[in-house]
Each structure stands twice: as C-alpha cells, then as structure tokens.
Specification:
The complex is a heterodimer of chains A (103) and B (549). Chain A is mainly alpha-helical and 103 residues long. Chain A has five helices and three strands. Chain A has a single domain, classed as Arc Repressor Mutant, subunit A (Orthogonal Bundle). In chain A, strands 1-3-2 form a three-stranded antiparallel beta sheet. Chain A starts with 8 loop residues before the first helix and ends with a helix. Chain B has 549 residues and is mainly alpha-helical. Chain B starts with 9 loop residues before the first helix and ends with a helix. At the A-B interface, helix 2 and helix 3 of A face helix 2 and helix 3 of B.
C-alpha cells in the first residue's frame, strides 16, 4: 500500500506521463523526453515514488551487446488510482495542468 | 537516434567520463539509481543532450552523497549505513548521533574562539607553563619586534627588549629603542640579565647616570655591578659584627657610589615607567600572551637590596663608632642620613619589596636614634622617634596585608575563582581527550570491535556519549570562571595605579599554585571515579543476588 503525499508539479507531470501508458514499462530517458524534466530532477522523483511503493522498477532482460542494462518503470496497480486522484485534485485546485490540456 | 562513438565531441566524451566516474564512487545505498541513469546516456540524441544528461547525473550523485553523508551523520559514532561495506549485525553503539557530537564540539570550539575564550586559554596555558616563555612565545616576540622595527615604534622595541630572555637580542633592541627615542634611556637601568639579578652593564649605567643625575638608582646599580668581595663576604659568617665592618672602610669606590646614592634627591627604579610601557603595548596588542606581561615585569632590575642593607648597617656602625668616641652630633647625623635616604626610597617609585626594605632600614635607623636620645637625656626627641617608629610599623603592616580588608577579600576571591578556573580548564582538557579517544576508537576500528560486547566497548560508547557534553559544560564554566580575571586584566590595562594587583594575580593564584591545583583536581577526579565504580559494582552485585536464577 502506498502513502498519500504532497506532490510537486513536476511529480504530477511524471505521474501523468506514466499514466498515459499504464502497465507499460518506460525508460528514464523517454520519460525525460516526454515530460521535459531533466535527469537531475527526474531521478529523485522516481526514487521517491519507488520508496513510497507507487512505482515498480525492473532491469531490462534483453541486453544490447556493449551496453549496460536499462532500468524500466511503471506505476504499481494500486498507485494508478491514487495518481489519477491526485491529478484530478490538482486540476481542481488549478495547481497543475497537463500538457494535453494546455494544448 | 543515438550518437555514435566516432562522432562524439570532446565535451560529450568528458561528460560521459564524468558520469562514469560518479557511478564508480556512488554511495552504496543508491548506486542502482546511478547505474540506471548512466545506462540511459547512450540514448541521448545529441552532444548537448549528453552533456545535460550527464550534468543531471552529477547533480543526483552530489545529492546522493550529501544525503548519504547526512544519514551517516545521524548515526552514532561507529555506526554504518545499511548496504555499506564492512561487518553488519547487532553491535553496541553510543546513544548520541554524530550530528549531536559534532554540534556540541563545534559549539565548544566556537566558545573558545570568542575573545574571552582566547584570553582564557592564553592565561591558563601560561600558568601551566609557570609563566615561562616557550619557543613559540619567543617567535611571537620576534614578530612583534620586526613589526615595531618596520613602524619605527621605539616603545614596542623597548618592551620586547625587556621581555625577551635572549641577552644579546635584548641589548641590540635596547640600543635601537633608545636611538629612536632617547626618553627611553631608563630601559638601560631596567633590563635585568637573567636568571640571577645581575645589574645592567657599566657602560649603560654611566649613560643612564649622565641622563638622570638626580636619581640614586644608577649609582646603586653601579655599586651592585662592582660586586666588591668585601661587601659580598660580609654575611659569610652570619650576622656581621662591628669588626667585620672595618674591612668596608677600604672599599672606597663602593663607599663613594653608595654615599652619592644616599645623598641623591630622588629614588626611582623605573618600575612605574616599565609598567606604563607594558600597559601601553598591552593596550595596542590585546592578544599578547600574559607570559610577556609578567616575565618582563618580574625581571625588572632593581638595586641589590642586600648591598643597600649592608651600607645602612655600615653607616650605623660608623655612628656607633662616633658615639663611642663621644661625637654624638656626628652619630646623630650619620643615622639621620640613613633615615632620610630610607624615607626617600620608601616614598619613591619602586617595587613593593624596595619599599619594605626602605621601611626596614628606616626602622633600624630610628631605633638607633631612640637609643641615642635615651642615653643623652633628650626625652622630647625620644618621644618623636617613638611616634615615628609606630608610624613605620603601621606602614609595614599595611603593605604586608595588601590594600586593607578590601584587598584581602579580593585576593581570597581570586584564589577561589582561580581554583574553579583551573579545575574547569583541566576538566575541559580531560573531557576533550576522552571525547576524541572515544569517537576515534569507535570510528577507526568498528569492524574489529563491533561484536565485542566488552567493558572496553561499553566504556568507549559511554565516553562518546557523555564526554562531548561534559566538554561543552566544562568550557562554559571555564569561561564563566575566567570573567573576573578578564575584568581584572581590563582594569590593569586601563589604570596606571593598578599594577600591584596585576603582579599579585599570577603570584597568588596562577603561577605558584597551578601545579598543586592540577594534581589536587586529578586526585579528586580519580577518587570520585573509583567511588563511582565501587558503588556501581556493589549495586550490581546486590541486584544480581536479589534476582531469582
């Protein structure tokens, strides 16, 4: 069971990106590209979410020769509903807008 | 599309290298995240992206290091973070965290860096060294002299000349100071050639006499410098008899100098000037070690007092001889000369011991006069002399007892405060050493001692827990107990009449008694520790017996 926490705008952006493809494993670089959040900010968010058990992580099994294995992320099943609730609440409070809404 | 290795520019290559280096040094507990971030660098689409990604990684690395360090600091000494290398498992550790220890020790160090803390350390350290100049003190004096030479500061040069223990250096500095400011010629007569009270050299004294002709002291110093064996031998067989004084009749040069001194209109051994100079330099250089202040004043040259006593006794002998020959007028005149000189000396600018000797000479002269008047039926003169003797006795008592009841109370207060100061100073040093030993031993050999639940381990934990707090309390108390001395020093710096109190501080409370105090404190502490261990042992034994098996 995850914990309810106060989320920053950038964390909400990451959650939104993870929710856009629920169940699918995503790489750190692609998350950074889709959210526009630099690595120095993205990884502390991922670390925090993992610590709160919102995020599932695993190492890539299929390895490209000459390259280190990559880390994969997706929202945990129970955390998806929590994330949606947080995003909805942030919308209502006008604290955060998703990039799709902005467009 | 990823950037191929061949196309990678130098900036991107450097960024990759930097990230690889960071991953190699990444803290153990978050290393997988460092590897995860580094694994993505091959996906970056341009050199700029590579650099940005790598910089983000470095930021994350820095954050991990800092957060790891903070987590480590929150553990007690000897504790290690989960996942860190080294032996794991249950161990006996102190209760307080490293942060607590560091905060306590830092606060204690900051207290010592306050002006009062620095002055307290300087003073107590000097007292532990018996106010003897160390090699570092000599270096500090040399730096002071070099600065004074650069600024052509004659006063400071004279001060260094009077404080240094190197006679050659002192001579050179004295000459330089006098050449810059001829008013400082009195330094010729104030510089004593330690360790014995050797008077200054003849050449200097001749120059001083020429510059200060009305003063008795240059002649007295010259007479001391003669070191006439006839005078020195006077006390070789105990109290001299009249026949012993006969030999002094032939010591013409000595007699001439002493007669000239006896007839001089002033007596000034320049101690007040020396004190004023010390005070002026001390006010400019507030960080001067107290050793300089005291050692310079203590080694101030004064005339040989035994020489002076011998001359007084010689004059009394001459008076007795005149009286025996029936020349009462000459006898009275000779004794009167001695008394007048002694009074001049007692009223002049000299040290306390000089004044006491002057009063002793005056007392002896007045007793001689009383005897003379009693035998020559001059009751009025005899009464006058008796009153004079009472007055001298009162002056001697006042001088011996300091400055009355107020002075005695102040002296006793200083003694008490000095005991506290020394006690807390020693406690602070012991607590500091215990804290250092406890923390260092726990940090340096955590592996070897981790599971050794021994008494030693327990003792180390106890030291790491309580020694820093004891250190802080001891330093606080140390500074509080130094405050009266700080006020006293400020008073001595501000007033030109407070020098006797200044001279008495180390004599009464810090110099002579410091070693006694230190050993008394160490003995009491060890005894208290022994009692504590015994009581604890008895309590534990009883507790173990009362518990059912």
């Amino acid at each position: 069971m995850g914990l309810r926490i106060r989320l920053s705008q950038q964390t909400l952006t990451v959650l939104d990106a993870l929710l856009s493809r629920p169940g699918q494993w995503l790489h750190g670089y692609s998350l950074s590209q889709s959210t526009g959040i630099p690595s120095g900010t993205l990884y502390p968010i991922l670390m925090r979410l993992e610590k709160l058990h919102w995020l599932e992580t695993r190492w890539e099994e299929v390895r490209t020769p000459g390259r280190p294995p990559r880390h994969l992320y997706r929202l945990a099943g129970t955390a998806r509903e929590w994330a949606r609730e947080e995003i909805r609440a942030a919308h209502e409070r006008r604290f955060w807008k998703s990039s799709e809404n902005e467009a | 599309m990823s950037v191929g290795k061949q196309e990678i520019p130098a900036s991107a290559r450097f960024a990759r290298w930097l990230l690889e280096w960071a991953v190699r040094h990444w803290p153990e507990e978050t290393r997988p995240w460092g590897l995860a971030l580094a694994a993505e660098i091959d996906e970056t689409a341009s050199a700029l992206e590579t650099v940005r990604w790598s910089l983000g990684g470095i930021m994350l690395f820095a954050r991990s290091v800092l957060s790891g360090a903070w987590a480590w600091m929150k553990l007690p000494a000897g504790g290690s973070l989960p996942g860190a290398s080294g032996p794991q498992g249950p161990s006996l550790l102190p209760k307080r965290s490293r942060v607590f220890t560091v905060a306590i020790v830092t606060t204690a160090a900051l207290l010592l860096f306050l002006p009062v803390g620095r002055e307290a350390i300087r003073t107590v350290r000097a007292s532990w060294q018996g106010f003897q100049e160390s090699a570092s003190d000599q270096r500090a004096l040399e730096e002071l002299a070099a600065r004074a030479e650069k600024e052509k500061d004659a006063g400071t040069l004279a001060f260094v000349a009077l404080s240094t223990t190197d006679p050659k250096r002192a001579a050179a500095l004295t000459e330089r100071a006098v050449s810059l400011d001829p008013e400082l010629i009195w330094v010729y007569g104030a510089r004593n050639h330690r360790p014995d009270f050797d008077p200054p050299g003849e050449e200097w004294l001749a120059r001083l006499k020429a510059a200060d002709p009305g003063n008795a002291v240059p002649d007295l110093l010259m007479a001391s410098a003669l070191a006439d064996p006839r005078v020195d031998m006077l006390y070789a067989h105990g109290t001299p008899k009249d026949a012993d004084f006969e030999v002094l009749e032939a010591a013409s040069k000595w007699k001439l100098l002493m007669e000239r001194a006896c007839g001089a209109p002033r007596y000034d051994s320049y101690f007040q000037k020396h004190y004023e100079l010390t005070r002026a330099v001390w006010n400019r250089e507030r960080n001067l070690p107290p050793t300089f202040i005291f050692s310079g004043l203590w080694s101030h040259a004064i005339p040989d007092l035994q020489n002076l006593m011998s001359f007084a006794k010689f004059k009394m002998y001459q008076a007795r001889k005149a009286r025996a020959a029936g020349d009462l007028q000459r006898a009275e005149s000779l004794i009167g000369e001695v008394d007048v000189f002694a009074l001049r000396m007692a009223d002049g600018s000299g040290t306390k011991i000089e004044k006491l000797i002057a009063l002793a000479i005056s007392k002896s002269a007045n007793k001689g006069l009383a005897d003379l008047f009693a035998s020559s039926a001059r009751p009025q003169d005899a009464r006058r002399v008796a009153l004079r003797l009472d007055e001298i006795e009162r002056s001697v008592q006042e001088m011996r007892l300091g400055s009355g009841p107020g002075g005695r109370a102040r002296e006793q207060a200083f003694r008490r405060e000095a005991m506290l100061l020394q006690g807390f100073g020693i406690l602070a040093v012991l607590a500091g050493l215990a804290a250092l030993a406890g923390v260092l031993l726990l940090e340096m050999w955590p592996g070897r001692r981790r599971n050794a639940q021994t008494r030693w381990r327990r003792a180390l934990c106890w030291m790491a827990d309580y020694a820093p707090a004891t250190l802080l309390v001891a330093i606080g108390a140390f500074l509080m107990s130094f405050l009266p001395f700080q006020h006293a020093f400020a008073e001595y710096r501000a007033s030109s009449y407070a020098m006797w109190g200044l001279m008495e501080i180390p004599e009464y409370v810090m110099g002579v008694h410091a070693r006694v105090l230190i050993w008394a404190f160490v003995t009491i502490t060890l005894a208290a520790l022994l009692v504590f261990v015994l009581v604890r042992g008895i309590y534990r034994t009883r507790h173990a017996v009362s518990k059912p098996a």
